[in-house]
Amino acid sequence: MKSLWSDSEARKFKGDLGKRVYTSRLLGANPELVLHGGGNTSVKTKEKDFFGDSVEVIHVKGSGWDLGTIEAEGFAPVRTETLLKLAEFDTLSDAEMVKQQRAAMLNPSAPNPSIEAILHAIIPQKFVDHTHANAVVALTNHKNGKATIEEVYGDRVVIVPYVMPGFDLAKAVAKELANVDPYALDGIILMNHGIFTMHDDPRRSYELMIELVTQAEIYLAGKTGKKFKLPTAKPEEDLLALSAIRKNVSDLRGTAVLVSLDNSKEAAGYSARKDISNLATRGPLTPDHTIRTKRIPVVIGKDPEKDIQKYADNYTKYFEKYNQGETMLAPDPRWAVWKNHGVLSFGASEKEAGVIRDIATHTWNTVQVTEAAFDGGWKALPASKLFEIEYWELEQAKLKKGGSSPIHQGKVAIVTGSAAGIGFACAASLAEQGAKVIGIDLSPEIEDQMASIGGIGIVANLTDDKKVIAAVEGIVRQFGGIDIVVSNAGIFTAGAYLENLESSNWDKSMAVNLTSHQKLLKYTIPFLKNGIDPAIVLVGSRNVNAPGAGAASYSCAKAGLTQLCRVAALELAPFGVRCNIIHPDAVFDTKLWTEENLKRSAERYNMTVEEYKTRNLLKTEIKSANVGDMVAAMSSPLFGKTTGAQVPVDGGNDRVI
Fold first, then answer.
1. 543, 489 in Cβ contact below 8 A?
2. Residues that are catalytic
3. H or E element at residue 150
4. Cβ atoms 196, 130 nearer than 8 A
5. What distance in Å separates the CA atoms of residue 577 and residue 536, rounded to the nearest whole number?
6. Least confident of 270-279, 295-304, 387-396, 403-412
7. Structure pTM?
8. Strand, coil or helix: what is 200?
9. Structural element, H or E, at residue 48
10. Half-sphere exposure (CA, 13 Å, Cβ side) for 617?
11. What angle do CA 479, 485, 490 make, to 5 degrees?
12. Which residues contact 345 (CB under 8 A, 6 or more apart)?
């Protein structure tokens, strides 16, 4: 491991707190040290309070901040005297500790101090760094962990047996430091947890971390041998089974989840190990990971549904064995080892799934290194200790606060023809309500348009079977399944009376306005059957019920689309998949309608533009967003009892009514 310190960069950060920000970011830049909010750092300073009195203050990383991107505002300024007084108590609940730490802050708008604030205060050095370095944890997590730490570091560090983080850990560290000269130490090793380094100089404190972790890396390399490599394999692929796994996990959690599939050669190699059922379920890399990943993953074999249900049953037994009045979490797994396929990570959002994937990846890498390096291999904390972290009173308090998720949170939605107009409005509304939206359009603009709402754009011709198949399979591969299909792609072919209608006009309209929708349904239906509250919404037209002369190719295609919806509703109802169609009319805020076109059309009816826009029974203007919101509603549980329906969004049309 290399030091990232740069004198020129360091000079840009002024004062003690500035240097604390700089070295914290250096630590956070290395995922081998900390991941996603892990670790914490601090600096002790003197500052003036509101009354101008000089006080001893410790700036400690605030809750919710990530070391890799932390700013000065991410550190909580706490009176050191208060923290040291708290350390004198024999017992202190976590809730009371958090309350008193917050009361001792100089800035009440700062984030809550780290739960390790008291620990940072009792370490006398000015700068204190704490990480969960993979290599150090690997040295501690086997049957002879303490002896290995002593062998590697000698008297450079003090060793603290595992203790629950927070007040108890601070007391344990204080006890160990009372027996040594703290200034003679380079670090503190917390068994099964991580490492602290400390110094009055920020650079030295940071580089001690790099130095001690490097020692661990060198030791591990010596134990595993120069030729050691993680196993690799060619992954198997079964996308339909993947969508079924997602369905099972979502049902257990009670909400839709996205799946991040790691089917790299290394992940496949790990999943193909003969001892994987035992190795994968020995416990996490560090206890705090259980808050995100739970204690162990599910190992999935040839019968995913059975394996996932068995995991849920065992999780319930685990809770019943150790709980002392806590509220049980949903019994779903947060990650999975899918034998011969790779590793799966589940999250209600793409971000959550990504965080869990990162933690899982570092876990299965480090576990395999430890397994190869030491007799007896990887050994995590017992389940009873991990339960304490997973069901921490501070985490339980978050459950009581509750809060509802967006209606489409965790769902995967495809919206075609979404580079502009109605299609984009549908995509935007679904995204706003929590869905991961994938737009498919012939226009290259689809990529930027979808990126603007946090979605993904795919350029594809929906009349091409191979392109549709590739798009659908790519979506399932990336997110685990499909829940919502909004089939909106269409064109308005040039008007022509039947006797003058060109065959190419008719054929093009049928291909785009009807057949492309049939192709999309054909290739998405197998995955929709495994979807979460699955729904199809087709975008038709007022022309179905009130056609106009000279629009045969368009009107007939949309009528065929309506019939396709009705057949799909009949066929898919037994599988819980709903199919409805929406008929918008007079939606003028699209690219098709320029100011000039609107003016010309209004004059034809002897109307002003505003009168023309509102020429419906309700005298209201219909906008793309109105259609988008209706589509999002029709895709939601609000329409959970409705299928085969035709819903107009036209302000009321007397010809239709």
1. no
2. 554
3. helix 145-153
4. yes
5. 7
6. 387-396
7. 0.94
8. coil
9. strand 40-48
10. 10
11. 125
12. 259, 260, 262, 334, 335, 336, 353, 354, 356, 357, 360
Q: How is residue 252 written in tokens?
A: 């257990």
Report the largest interatomic distance among the alpha carbons of the chain, rounded to a whole angstrom. 101
3-class DSSP assignment, residue 482 = coil
Angle between helices 516-528 and 552-572 (to 10 degrees): 20
Determine the straight-line distance between the first and last CA of the chain, rounded to whole angstroms. 73
Closest CA to 343 of 233, 469, 251, 471: 233
Structure tokens at 379: 């050994």
| SS3 category, 26 | helix
DSSP string spanning 428-472?
HHHHHTT-EEEEEESSTHHHHHHHTTT-EEEE--TT-HHHHHHHH
Please report which helix (H) or strand (E) contains residue 300, including its range.
strand 298-300
With both helix axes pointing from N to C terminus, report the angle between 202-224 and 15-28 in degrees, rounded to the nearest 10.
20
What letter would DSSP give residue 584? E
Residues 2-38: tens digit of each pLDDT: 999 999 999 999 999 999 999 999 999 999 999 988 9
C-beta contacts of 224-227 below 8 A and 24+ residues apart: 224/369, 224/372, 224/373
C-alpha 467/C-alpha 445 separation (Å) is 18
**What span, in angstroms and rounded, lies between the C-alpha atoms of 578 and 567?**
11
Q: How many residues does the chain have?
A: 657
Nearest Cα residue to 513 out of 532, 536, 539? 539
Report how far residue 267's alpha carbon sits from residue 335's, in angstroms, rounded to the nearest whole number.
Answer: 13
Instruction: Find where tokens 């704490």 sit.
Output: 130
User: In this structure, which amino acid lies at residue 490?
Assistant: G
Distance separating alpha carbons of residues 183 and 187, to the nearest angstrom: 10
Tokens for 21? 């920000």
Structure tokens at 335: 């990650």
**Bridge partners, 298 (sequence order):** 336
